Amino acid sequence: MMGSKAAIFATAVLAVLFSTPALAQTSSPPAPAPVSLPPSPAPAPAPHYVDLAELLSVAGPFHTFLNYLEKTNVIETFQSQANNTKVGITVFVPKDSAFAALKKSTFSNLTSDQLKTLLLYHAFPTFYSLAEFKNLSSLNPVNTFAGSPYTLNLTDDMGSIYVQSMWSRPKIASSVYATKPVAVYALNKVLLPMQLFSKDPPLAPAPAPAPESGASDAPSPAAGKADGLAGGKGDSTSAAYSVGAVSVANSLLLAAAGCLMLLW
Question: Which positions are tagged coiled coil (predicted)?
Fold first, then answer.
């Protein structure tokens, strides 16, 4: 009897010992879920570098404007502003034909500082797309790179953008380049501020018209009239000579007849 009780007790102890790890495993807290971190932001793309001198040399007939920019070193000022991606730059570039329409003395009479100011007058120290000009026109006048006294007025007329200075009101002919931070727009006239030109700069003289080809070889009315007069005089002289010859012949015949009658 005692042996049976000992066997039952031993079996119970073994059962408890073997079941304890399972109980401990089932009663342990669940493992924490892995923490998901937000993806790191992609690095910002590097700003696109625009070489303004190269752009103007190949984009269109802008050689005169580019020569003035390089002569005055204003191209370096514009290039430095173009590299500032926070605000950028907007440049209005007159075509070569716009400069050819003005007399050369228009710019030769300017000092080096005045010429530099004239070039700075053709840019805004901020990037503006064509879509932004409509709202910008409500802020007229707009300051240029030359400073507050040198301003421009912008007008949006049914989608056509006009840039007005004192002596010219050109329309933006085309968009040469318009990707932030650089905008370049072509003009068909030079922007001339009142501060540099007290009166309307004279235009270059228009070329003389070419002579008409195939001039008429017909004689002029005066020549015909002279010929007619000469011809009429010759005819009247011949007629007078003929009448005189007939009168002499008649007189001779009458004289001969008179002599015959006397002899008879």
Answer: none
